[in-house]
Structure formats: structure tokens, C-alpha cells
Amino acid sequence: MKRRSFIKGTFALATIGLLNPVLFRHGLLAEEAVEMPFKELLDEYVRGKKVEDGAALMTLNIPDAPENGAVVPIEVTVNYPMNPDDYISNITVLTTKNKANKAISFDLTPANGIAYLFVNVKMGQTQDVVILAQTNKGRIFKASKNVRVALGGCG
Amino acid sequence: MELRGVVKILDQNYKVGDVVKAKIIVIHKMDTGFTKDKESGKQFPRFYMKEITATYNGSVIAHFDLDVATSQNPVIQFPLKVTGPGELVVDFVNSEDEKGQKKVAIVPAA
Questions:
Q1: Alpha-carbon distance A38 to B24, whole Å?
Q2: What average pLDDT score do residues B60-65 get?
Q3: In chain A, what residues touch B47 (CB-CB under 8 Å)?
Q4: Residue B49 belongs to what domain range?
């Protein structure tokens, strides 16, 4: 009995020891490339709610044809009051034709004062940038802009 | 290894009640996992900046979830309403749970 449990224990330790560097140090799942289609990401964000057109509400400062697709500056200002009980709680920037389309999700609080975000995004080809803004009460606004990319960044 | 980054306030001579912009730059690769090394043909593993959290005087005011479509060495600007003198603390976490922290003092003009 003792010998049996001893052998089992050694085997278990050896297995953990072998897997350990792969599984825990790097994280097996984190290293694998994950495709994130635009439609899935949009559905996950919207979750069946109504999406309102936010083109009049948002001021976008995005170049029409950036020099390099690897660094496309995206500047968004959502003209929505940031009252403590009614404010923009999230701004998400998505692309439409990259392999992985999620760029950034920004959670805001009324302490930010205004709803503004600047971020650099990678783009593999000519496509749309979609900006989604959500209020704390669940209203979703969407605005998009087509960006012509001549030299693609590895998207 | 501690992650390298920069945090600064872009505006100068701000007062209490003003909205200022803060800028975060993190020196970090954003490998998507799809690209290959040209010489060896080996795929680069997915390795990216995951989370950035900004805390101002003890309360979290901004939280960013980044993903692989953000550019290499991510640059982010976000607004901040000055409520008094204090410190803006920014924490970075990457996809391998390595951490970094940067602080900047907020000193409104009297």
C-alpha cells in the first residue's frame, strides 16, 4: 500500500513538473492565436439591445489614409454629459476586417469629466473602424469611419 | 521583469475643477499570434498588454482592456477631472501576468 501510493505520488509530481513550464509559466491558452470576427464581438457587446446611431453625438478624428497601417491614431470625443447618474460608462474600439478585431475597451467613471479616448490601432487592410459607446443605463451608440490603408500593419 | 512605461499630464497650469488629459505609453510588444518569423518560419506566440488601471487618490477612474489589435507600444490618452492635489497611479498587466506601475503627481495651481 505504501509502495503503491509512493509510486503514484512520484508519477503525479513528475507529470506536474513536466507540464509546469508550459502550462503555468507562459499560460498555454494565452499563447495561441485567437481569431475574433467582428460580428461575434459586436453581438457580444450589444446583447440584443437597440443600437442607436451616434454619428451626430461623436466627434471622430481619424485619418482617411494613414501612412502606415500599424499605427492608426484614433481620437474619439462623445458629446454626452457626464452626470453622476447618467454618463458614458464604456467606449470600445473595433475594426472590421482584421483577424483579431478588438482593439480596446475603456471603462469610464463620472470622475473623467468628459468622454474622450485616444488610442493607436493596427489595421491589416482597408476597412472600417467602429466605435461603440455605452451609457450606464444601457443605451448604445455606434459610429464608424472607413480608413484606407495602403501598407498594412500585421493585423 | 518590471514593465516599462510613461505616465504624464498633458496640460499645464490647471486648476481644481478643470478637465485635463493624461497620457500613458507602455513599452510592450503586441504580438497577435498570427505572424511568423521570416527566417525560421516559427510563429510568434500571442503576447500583448492586457489591462491598464488608473487610480486617482484611491479610487479607480479608468480601466482599459486592451487586445491584440492595439498598436505596438500602446499610447492612450484619457480625460481626468482634477478634484484636488494627489497622485495618479497607473498599473499595467500583460498577458503573462507581469506587472508594472507608474505614478505621477497632480499639483493644481492655487
A1: 27
A2: 93
A3: 30-31
A4: 4-106
Give the integer Cα–Cα distance in Å for B17 and A113. Answer: 9
Question: What's the start-to-end Cα distance of chain B, in Å?
Answer: 40
Q: A95-147 pLDDT, tens per residue?
A: 998 888 889 999 999 999 999 999 999 888 899 999 999 999 989 999 999 99
Query: Distance of CA A146 to CAs A100, A126, B45, Å?
Result: 18, 8, 30
Q: Where are the domains of chain A?
A: 1-32, 38-147
Q: In angstroms, rounded to a whole number, what is the distance separating the alpha carbons of residues A33 and B4?
A: 25
Q: Which CATH superfamily is domain A38-147 in?
A: SoxY domain (2.60.40.2470)
pLDDT, tens only, A1-37? 566 666 566 555 555 555 554 444 444 455 677 888 8
* A87 — pLDDT class (breaks 50, 70, 90): very high
> For chain B, what is the domain count?
1
Q: Do A113 and B77 touch (CB under 8 A)?
A: no
In angstroms, the separation between the Cα of residue B77 and the nearest Cα of chain A is 5
Inter-chain contact B72–A101, Cβ cutoff 8 Å?
no
Q: Mind telling me how many Å the CA of B78 is from chain A's nearest CA?
A: 5
Task: Check CB contact under 8 Å for A114 and B79.
Answer: yes
Opening angle at CA A101, ends A99 and A104, nearest 5: 145
Question: What CATH number has the domain bearing residue B98?
Answer: 2.60.40.10
Identify which of B38, B39, B23, B25 has the alpha carbon closest to the alpha carbon of residue B77.
Answer: B23
> If you ran DSSP here, which 8-state letter would residue B2 be given?
P
Measured CA to CA, the distance from residue B80 to residue A108 in angstroms comes to: 10
Question: Would an 8 Å CB–CB cutoff place A155 in contact with chain B?
Answer: yes
pTM: 0.81
